[in-house]
Design brief:
heterodimer; A: 517 residues; mainly alpha; Cytochrome C Oxidase, Chain A; two-stranded antiparallel sheet; 67% helix; B: 183 residues; alpha+beta; 2 domains; 9 strands
């Protein structure tokens, strides 16, 4: 304990402390979550009624694109990197991350990436309007002139993710406390270790995809341009070779968080720890060989459709193993329902619904009906929002007392949970019906028969959006004026090294490694 | 603290990331082309075909249909001169497409062929095709664009109709050099 944090803004600009950097990641991701949420509110406000009321269709397209990009790359991914920074060193008994200066760099380039991306909203030509999947030639031949800013933004956020992942792998492999073997690591550390390898494997592929776009647009190459001998379908293959592992990059750390919270509030150890590890690894492996299930409509031969269909359905097996393990952990446990546990249980239920709709979409012949419809929108919001965002919220409630030494307001937390849960389901459950009835995604307007469910969905979205402001209020109030807590274990059922240090966690922890038996 | 293991792991993982980037840029596109060529997926046809004396299979007749499409805002008039022919496998057949540059500026076009059904793509050979070269036309100029093709005798029995589609792309901006030569 040589010294505490530096004073003033310099503390944040030059910090190499994993807790400071974790805090900055978490606040940055929450700011991006509010920005992306604001875009979502614009989208739902426009879709409240048929016809064009508030914005022009061109701007609507920019909103759907920016919402997706900001939420995936700006909100969810940095949120889990922030959790990793705060928690991994404390969970494995390490004094800090393995490469602290690179840690600082990987955070501080992120605001520039998103400043580049967001600045396009104010430029001539407008923000990217080709969807977050930016299929060529829509994103090359027909792109707005601001597409280059988007490309450089993606390059920078990719570099940030890769550096963050290298740091996490180095920390986990080299800096574990003596006695902590790989199979004794907490689940959150395991899921992040596997996620970090996924990131290193596929973020460069995304960088390759946008670099090829850059060259097609500016230097006359024809990677995706049929006129020069290229092929637009190649873009979709490259993109989804990145894109499918990307969805597991988002959800695996969420699985890790849930695997901590459910045992704590069930007062039982996690059921089937080793099967959880192997299931996570199998999901990661399978994610590389199923990418074309996003592309059933490009005109694949029947053999290809069958292969990608069966391979995709195979993922349900390890995922189901995880869900059964969580349920078995709760079975005959002494359950209590504090806010983190409520979010964790909602995660298990809603993520399972999202998994089942994913299975429906995996069936190639019925995908003909579901493809690019609101059914897909409903599916991925059940796994992204009720999956990743719910688990991130649960993690904040769960570890916040340890981080800042103050207890959040439990009643307000529970109220926020129920508003979120109800708002979320009002928003997205009707979108299943809309999709099955044939409403296509990414349009600014819709046919009259879709009016009722769209209005209900918009009302739900406003409720869900409001609940996030309550969340922000609760967190800030906790940090400023929460009831002080000082016992190392905030939750009586909590296990793990992070609960052995003082509360609030000192600026430097585990300067001498703990002994793990 | 000893930083060596961290440094060496950093170098290895960075190397892995660089390899994945190079894989995406320089391996995936050729791999994709090769895959399409081998399987015929995507309906791409091959380059100029060397005629082999295999004889004509008069016992079979295959219908070949022609489709001409302009890409995006391509302003040329572009159509097949005959829309459908019936051929025997192994028999060289000559047809022509008609193109006219209806604009007031000199332009260069590139036609991209595509064959349906996909499993016929590797059995559809072109000995001469306007799609092998860029096609410059001056303002107001028109031309008959020739095509000589042979349907392979090994064409799967199930295929009775082949559709050959050309999409015409405006490549004037990227083909500045060949335009200068044409002038």
């Amino acid at each position: 304990m040589a010294h505490g944090p530096a004073k003033g803004i310099g503390r944040w600009l030059f910090t190499t402390n994993h807790k400071d950097i974790g805090t900055m990641y978490l606040w940055f991701s929450f700011a991006m979550f509010l920005l992306g949420g604001f875009f979502a509110m614009v989208i739902r406000a426009e879709l409240f009624q048929p016809g064009m009321q508030i914005i022009r269709p061109e701007f609507f397209n920019q909103m759907t694109t920016m919402h997706g990009l900001v939420m995936v790359f700006g909100a969810i991914m940095p949120a889990f990197v922030g959790l990793a920074n705060w928690l991994i060193p404390m969970m494995i008994g390490a004094p800090d991350m393995a490469l602290p200066r690179m840690n600082n760099l990987s955070f501080w380039i992120l605001p520039f990436a998103f400043a580049l991306l967001a600045s396009t909203l104010f430029m001539e030509g407008g923000a990217p309007n080709f969807g977050w999947t930016f299929y060529a030639p829509l994103s090359t031949t027909y792109a707005p002139s601001t597409v280059n800013y988007f490309i450089f933004g993606v390059h920078i956020m990719g570099a940030s993710s890769i550096m963050g992942s290298i740091n996490i792998i180095a920390t986990v492999l080299n800096m574990r406390a003596p006695g902590m073997t790989l199979m004794k690591m907490p689940m959150f550390v395991w899921t992040w270790l596997i996620t970090a390898f996924l990131l290193i494997a596929v973020m460069p592929v995304l960088a390759g995809a946008v670099t090829m776009m850059l060259m097609d647009i500016n230097f006359g190459t024809s990677f995706f341009d049929a006129a020069g001998g290229g092929d637009p379908v190649l873009f979709q293959h490259v993109f989804w070779f990145f894109g499918h592992p990307e969805v597991y990059i988002i959800i695996l750390p969420a699985f890790g968080v849930i695997s901590h919270i459910i045992p704590t509030f069930s007062r039982k150890p996690l059921f089937g720890y080793s099967s959880m590890v192997y299931a996570t690894a199998s999901i990661a492996f399978l994610s590389f060989i199923v990418w074309a299930h996003h592309m059933f409509m490009v005109g694949m031969p029947i053999g290809g459709e069958l292969y990608f269909m069966y391979a995709t359905m195979l993922i349900a097996v390890p995922t189901a193993a995880k869900v059964f393990n969580w349920v078995s952990t709760m079975f005959r446990g002494s359950l209590t329902y504090e806010t983190p546990m409520l979010f964790a249980i909602a995660f298990v239920i809603l993520f399972t619904i999202g998994g089942f709709t994913g299975l429906m979409l995996a069936i190639a012949p019925s995908d003909v009906q579901y493809h690019d419809s609101y059914f897909v929108v409903a599916h991925f919001h059940y796994v992204m929002v009720a999956g990743a965002v719910f688990s991130g919220t649960a993690a904040v409630y769960y570890w916040l007392p340890k981080w800042c030494g103050r207890m959040y307001n439990e009643t307000m937390g529970k109220v926020q949970f129920w508003i979120s849960f109800i708002g979320f389901n009002i928003t997205f459950f009707p979108q299943h019906f809309l999709g099955l009835a044939g409403m296509p995604r990414r349009y600014a307007d819709y046919a009259l028969q879709f009016s009722d469910w769209n209005m209900i969905s918009s009302i739900g979205a406003f409720i869900y959006g409001a609940s996030q402001l309550l969340f922000m209020f609760n967190v800030i109030r906790t940090i400023k004026a929460g009831t002080p807590v000082s016992e190392p274990k905030t939750w009586e059922g909590a296990e793990g090294l992070e609960w052995t240090v003082a509360t609030p966690a000192p600026y430097h922890t585990f300067s001498t490694p703990p002994e793990v038996k | 603290m000893d930083n060596k293991p961290n440094r060496s792991l950093l170098v290895k993982l960075l190397g892995g990331a660089v390899c994945m980037f190079l894989f995406a840029m320089f391996v995936m596109p050729p791999l994709y082309d090769m895959f399409c060529e081998v399987t015929g997926i995507g309906g791409k046809t091959g380059g100029p075909y060397e005629v082999t004396e295999a004889g004509v299979d008069v016992s079979r007749t295959v219908k070949v249909q022609f489709v001409a499409t302009n890409n995006a805002a391509m302003p040329w008039q572009f159509s097949p001169k005959v829309y459908e022919v019936e051929v025997h496998p192994g028999e060289p057949t000559e047809v022509a497409f008609y193109a006219k540059n209806r604009t007031h500026r000199d332009m260069v076009a590139q036609a991209i062929p595509n064959v349906t059904p996909f499993n016929a793509a590797e059995y559809f050979h072109k000995t001469e095709c306007f799609c092998f070269n860029q096609q410059p036309l001056k303002a107001g100029e028109e031309a008959d664009l020739p095509l000589v093709f042979i349907v392979d005798r090994d064409l799967p029995k199930a295929v009775t109709t082949i559709t050959l589609s050309y999409t015409l792309f405006d490549i004037t901006s990227r083909a500045g050099d060949s335009l200068a030569q044409a002038n």
